[in-house]
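This part of the workshop introduces the protein records we will be handling. As an example, a complete record with its sequence and its structure tokens follows.
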Amino acid sequence: MAAAGGEGPGPEAAGGGEELELTPAELIRSLEQAWLNEKFAPELLESKAEIVECVVEQLDHMESNLKRAKAGDLKVSVHRMEIERIRYVLSSYLRCRLVKIEKFFPHVLEKEKSRAEGEPSILSPEEFAFAKEYMANTETYLKNVALKHMPPNLQKVSLLKSVPKPNLDSFVFLRVLERQENILVEPETDEQREYTIDLEEGSQHLIRYKTIAPLVASGAVQLI
């Protein structure tokens, strides 16, 4: 279970059984970081379902506080604006993930299928059910509209081969949150050789996504 200090719940510590207590402000920052990473990463990232659940609980708590506030209090308007801002970030985060699932659904399901035991899931249970249903509906639609009218030897299609993969070679902007040393950078041309760079905390870079994908997953860098 997740726990939080102060007014609301926070996400569990990654990779451990102990609970990590977060203040409401820290919880919202975690959501904003997940939102920006998801928005700018070319692939579907690890599900942050527990953060989402905690933020929803926090929003309910904030709504309850507003109902108890005095009518006409200026703070009510300020807190109402903050609630709407958080709802926007949350809905944008979830919408961005659904768009990626629809765009890359065969690869998302294949990655989830081949996930090693103990490895974090990239899909929440609800997203997994949605992806499976979306794939089944797509296969049914293709069969009824096109495939059944084609010669028998052409009535099978591999969605895994037909649907484009996420472009992990695309370039992304990032801000370094934790100093990193000896990051291996692949050459841009055949004439160049591999080389390593150090990423200083607070610095910003434009770099190939797959080079820093593990750092995005670990939280060492923030996509911007």
Notes: DSSP finds six helices and five strands in the chain. The CA atoms of residues 50 and 131 lie 19 Å apart.
